[in-house]
């Protein structure tokens, strides 16, 4: 274990097992519809690739990245790198590393809806409902957590720890 890790929340195996379950549920729900997975760089990429391999129907994938306006309202974000392709008429699954306050997801859902997606659903690796400020429909999730800051499996602290295979709480200074 790395020196800054306080405790492991979910092991690689536990994450893998939940992703397999979600992959089956998503495959079932979208079995007649071509699905596009959309993830936000960089945190959600690890979850997206694992999830995509657990889904048994053909899927497209696309990415965007967002940046927040420094020093301003934390929920205020803008698209820094946009999707490569239009999404009009498509069934979209927004893949999130963690839905915390819900502000980021709400912004993204509104943006995607305005582009004429046929349907929008959300799949979150982690769902921290205790900190929610705005309602977000989380259709699929691996785990609900109520912990302090979590790193690993794509989640960072100051850009570090994304490459951990597990989800952990770090020692804060
Ligand atoms: P929200 O807009 O408050 O829902 O926050 C979503 C974003 O905040 C996530 O995509 C993460 O980048 C970041 N975030 C929230 N909680 C954590 C955490 O515990 N660890 C790492 N990043 C987090
Ligand atoms: Mg982050």
Description:
This protein has 173 residues and is of the alpha/beta class. It has one domain: 3-Layer(aba) Sandwich (Rossmann fold). 23% of the residues lie in helices and 33% in strands. It starts with a strand and ends with a strand. The mean pLDDT is 94. The structure holds inosinic acid and magnesium ion. Magnesium ion binds next to loops.
User: What is the chain-wise order of helices and strands?
Assistant: EHEHEEEHEEEE
Ligand inventory: inosinic acid, magnesium ion
CA-to-CA gap between the ends?
Answer: 18 Å
Low-confidence stretches: none
Strand order of the largest sheet: 4-3-2-5-6-7
Question: What topology does this entry show?
Answer:
Layout: E1 5-10, H1 12-29, E2 35-41, H2 45-54, E3 59-68, E4 77-81, E5 91-99, H3 103-114, E6 119-127, E7 140-144, E8 150-151, E9 167-170
Parallel strand pairs: 2-3, 2-5, 5-6, 6-7
Antiparallel strand pairs: 1-9, 3-4, 8-9
Helix pairs in contact: 1-2
This protein binds inosinic acid and magnesium ion.
Features:
6-stranded mixed sheet; single chain; Rossmann fold; 3 helices; alpha/beta; binds inosinic acid
Summarize this structure briefly.
This protein is an alpha/beta fold. It contains three helices and nine strands; from the N terminus they run βαβαβββαββββ.
């Amino acid at each position: 274990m790395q020196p800054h890790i306080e405790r492991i929340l979910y092991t690689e195996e536990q994450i893998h097992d939940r992703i397999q379950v979600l992959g089956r549920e998503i495959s079932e729900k979208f079995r007649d519809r071509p699905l596009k997975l959309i993830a936000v760089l960089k945190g959600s990429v690890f979850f997206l690739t694992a999830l995509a391999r657990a889904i048994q129907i053909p899927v497209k994938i696309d990415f965007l990245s967002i940046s927040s306006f420094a020093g301003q309202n934390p929920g205020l974000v803008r698209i820094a790198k946009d999707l490569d392709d239009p999404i009009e008429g498509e069934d979209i699954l927004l893949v999130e590393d963690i839905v915390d306050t819900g502000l980021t997801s709400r912004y993204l859902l509104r943006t995607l809806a305005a582009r004429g997606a046929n349907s929008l659903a959300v799949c979150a690796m982690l769902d921290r409902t205790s900190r929610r400020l705005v309602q977000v429909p989380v259709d699929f999730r691996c785990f609900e957590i109520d912990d302090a800051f979590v790193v690993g499996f794509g989640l960072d602290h100051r850009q570090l720890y994304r490459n951990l295979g597990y989800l952990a709480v770090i020692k804060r200074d």
